[in-house]
Design a protein that fits this description.
Number of helices of chain A: 7
Helix content of chain A: 25-40%
Order of helices and strands of chain A: EHEEHEHEEHEHHHEE
Strand order of the largest sheet of chain A: 3-2-1-4-6-5-7
CATH topology of chain A: Spore Coat Polysaccharide Biosynthesis Protein SpsA, Chain A
Number of strands of chain A: 9
Largest sheet of chain A: 7 strands, mixed
Strand content of chain A: 15-25%
Radius of gyration of chain A: 18 Å
Number of domains of chain A: 1
Oligomer: homodimer
Low-confidence stretches of chain A: 87-113
CATH class of chain A: Alpha Beta
CATH superfamily of chain A: Spore Coat Polysaccharide Biosynthesis Protein SpsA, Chain A
Mean pLDDT of chain A: 88
Structural class of chain A: alpha/beta
Amino acid sequence: MRVVVPLSVSGPKSRLADVLSPAERRAFALVMCRDVLAAARDAGLDPELLATAPVDLDAPTTVDDRPLSEAVNAVLADATDAPDATDATDGTGTDGDDENGDGNGNENGDDGTGAHEPVCVLMADLALATPDAVARLVDAPGEVVVAPGRGGGTNALVVRHPDFRVDYHGVSYRDHREAAAALDASVTVVDSMRLATDVDEPADLVEVLLHGPGDAPGWLRERGVALSVGDGRVSVTRESPPGG
Amino acid sequence: MRVVVPLSVSGPKSRLADVLSPAERRAFALVMCRDVLAAARDAGLDPELLATAPVDLDAPTTVDDRPLSEAVNAVLADATDAPDATDATDGTGTDGDDENGDGNGNENGDDGTGAHEPVCVLMADLALATPDAVARLVDAPGEVVVAPGRGGGTNALVVRHPDFRVDYHGVSYRDHREAAAALDASVTVVDSMRLATDVDEPADLVEVLLHGPGDAPGWLRERGVALSVGDGRVSVTRESPPGG
């Protein structure tokens, strides 16, 4: 299975401006991305980056400066066109199971006329992702596997259908389900708080501090970002305002 | 296993005031509670209500007007004191497994000196709860099983340790983990978006509309509450302002 982590390199995480400076937001986006890559690797996968610009992270990287949906769809089209798609790299998956038992050597469950290497798309800001959560995603059956994000987003996908394409605008969770239904593709929804939590807003940093399994929580704490409890709700505070 | 659903009857869901009138908020709290009870029943459990006042819902009900933590702790103390705690109602659980194989007929894994009927505490506003999600919770191993809520809360618990008590104030997820550690109780964290989503704010209604498996989404739609997509973020709107 091909595992792609899309990363927006320029001006990321603007909604964290009250807590982190622009330079810190860029650095934090990379810290979170490293945590996501580590979770995928610890789930037995070989993640690669799909970055909007060259970036200094230790993973095979494709640079594509198009909008997210276009860049991901190029990967999906590429996986469909791959001449060796049916016997491709999905042997790196966590379950070691290359076949669905249908005897045609085609894991996507279609009619066998279109070869398609399964593709997993995992957002780079899933700072709560653990190897277990990633394994639940990639091991789930279905031609389209979706892990919804809060607010109707699509935080992680596994695509095993050659014709499925993404559109991350708007209520993408609903749109992706409709797109799968239009293709008669089977859909599995993965119920994971860890995969549902993309980190965009200060409130999401509460989740990172409490549940992040990687380096992101420590990175925040080193900069004085901490939990704050007031009027029954938990938020974050920072000892000093964002630096440069 | 005893399954308790705490419900606050008076003035619930005040943070939904921009979308629902006081009478509607009371009604919506009951709709959500019914959905939670149904999910628990469909998981093979016999849920009971722990309500702050008498309420017209079809479930065995204990009325306790004390604050949430005190009322739940009274249930936990009761489960510990129960003379028949070791062979109590946990045969109603989804796995049909009354024993942990330790041969002492005591399912909580302690040293056998304290009998304790396992107790599951499931908040009444988990409108996304499905039978599968509830089953994952009650089937998870551990003397304390926690499903964290967003913002550091504790949305669902299974308690199999006789001395564990709750405190829902503040960052209760962290506090409950610390309390379990102080008792040397084993802890399992359940990674579920459905159980992590308690419905308090208008943004949570997005989740109900998209993912709610019961009557709550339809109830909202009948009142004109719908998804709204603006500036990339999804929220809810209502056709007309809240009525009486």
